[in-house]
Amino acid sequence: MLIQLLAIVATLPSMSEGRLPWNARNAEHLLNRAGFGARGSDVEAAAAAGLEATLERLLAPHAGWEMPAYERIDEPTKKDLEGLTTEEQEKKKRAAREADRRQMLETTAWWFREMETTDAQLLEKMTLFWHGFFTTSIEETKRSFLVLQQHEFLRNNALGSYSDLLRGIARDPGMLVYLDNNVNRKGSPNENFARELMEIFSLGEGNYTEDDVKEAARALTGRGVGRDGSFDFRTRQHDDGLKTVLGVTGRLDGDQLVDILLQQDACPRWVARRLLAWFEGVEPEPARLAEYASFLRKERFELRPFLRKLFSDPSFYRDEIVGARVLGPVEYMVGSARRMQVEVPPGLLGAGAALLGQRVFSPPSVKGWDEGYAWISTSTLMQRGNLSGLMLGVVKVADVMTLADVEAEMAAEEGDTMQGGDKMRPERGDEPGMQPGAGERATGAKKPATKAKSGKAGGYAMEILKRIEGSGWSPALNFRVRLEKANARTDAQIVERMLDELLAIPAPADTVQRMRAFLEGERKERKIADGKLLDSGGDAERILRRMAHLILSLPEAQLG
């Protein structure tokens, strides 16, 4: 699979060196990276408006969103359960857990609807980025209120200032619970949060010492969570003694620790590297990283100037990266729905992404998700095709399985013998989207990865898909009418239009030929002349949906 994708990337058309030409190619690239699945009408509008106007729209503050109301739902206390029978107590506990689960699912569905339908695409893309950067998992916090509160904070600051994000995350109740800082106290420091604050959230590995971690943990003592789920600083549990972190000595507290981190040269370099790799899909060259790290520091970690510079940079549109970034499961599901121009139940999008290994609010480890080619194997590609077929109404839920089931079936059929450079099946602990570890914990152990694509997560996702199918939902799609409006009637015109609408990259010649052969075969079987397919009513729509399914199952459809 990797070999196929690399071969496709190698066939993409080139952009000449020099000044950035503003055209449909570059407009589509910008919209794909700054959002989820650029639609044809969006590309045309952006190309006509020009780069500056398009950037103004993408970077504009967006106040139109409002998260669904959420509340803190606790397990019943002993007092709540007094006088109740055992059965009544269990019923009350189940009701609280179900209410918390429902709140989590409702907000997840809302977020997927926002990603699919909002015009504020960059806000949603950056919210997803920070969700994978400052990770907290419902599997660890156990309460939806904590992760939803953090999500609202990340969303409010997604296009603001990284320094505000770092300061806020050092006080975030969900993060403090997730990384055990709620038990970090004077005389018994817990190093988990201090370590990840440096290694993953600000500096990167190798830019601090073990002594720095120990001293930083002391600075963070006393930071915990109050009974109402808010940040709580417990003075008596804070170590106010002298500490030395990264060469700075004083009676340091958590806020002063963050100031020290922000002053390190490694900090803008780490953040710039993560942002460049996210948007470009490749690791930045040293000189390019140095330029953007210096700019981020000069702009006091403000994100809008950084993104404006990046999106205006001709190097952002270079041949190496245009249409060459593997889409993560969330991007694939949301982008496919947007390109098809079909309103999909948000639960289907979220459940599909979870089955593919990216269950939002439940990352596999504190490092978030692996990106790029780590997402792709034969089993994940097969499952992506099944899920796109589900959105098109040509595949039933019964044909969709968890990835663990797909891999087991493949192993049984093929003797589990696939090896070599084209990584068809991941080894245990190296699944797409999975992390084998998340940096040293205070005990020397690794924070375990949560298996996000099978087992419990797979069961939850399949339950949602079955419920949607049982509701009688079917996609409100009409490819036939859309093609008629575009005056695309012959096989060649239909294939060209469908490939252009559903793929983020130009289709290779052999893909074009395969789609034409498919369409010709379907026509001839029904004795329909070339140019007359759209006149065949329901038959035409069924054929077009099947062709859309084939296109979205291709390796090319995994790139953006």
Shape descriptor: globular
SSE arrangement, N to C: HHHHHHHHHHHHHEEEEHHHHHHHHHHHHH
Which percent bin holds the helix content?
40-55%
Roughly how many Å is the radius of gyration? 25 Å
Report the structural category. mainly alpha
Alpha-carbon distance between the two ends: 16 Å
Q: Care to count the β-strands?
A: 4
Q: Count up the helices.
A: 26
Q: What does the main sheet amount to?
A: 2 strands, antiparallel
Strand content: under 5%
Calculate the mean pLDDT score and round it.
89
Q: Record the strand order, biggest sheet.
A: 1-2
- Unreliable runs: 416-455
Describe this structure in words.
By secondary structure, the protein is mainly α. It has helices at 2-10, 24-33, 40-49, 51-59, 78-81, 86-117, 121-133, 138-141, 144-157, 162-169, 173-178, 192-199, 210-219, 254-263, 266-280, 286-298, 303-312, 329-340, 346-355, 378-392, 403-414, 455-470, 479-485, 491-502, 509-525, 538-552, and strands at 223-225, 231-233, 243-245, 248-250. The chain starts with a helix and ends in an 8-residue tail after the last helix. The chain has 26 helices and 4 strands. A two-stranded antiparallel sheet has the order 1-2. The protein is 54% helix and 2% strand. Residues 416-455 have low confidence and may be disordered. The radius of gyration is 25 Å and the shape is globular.
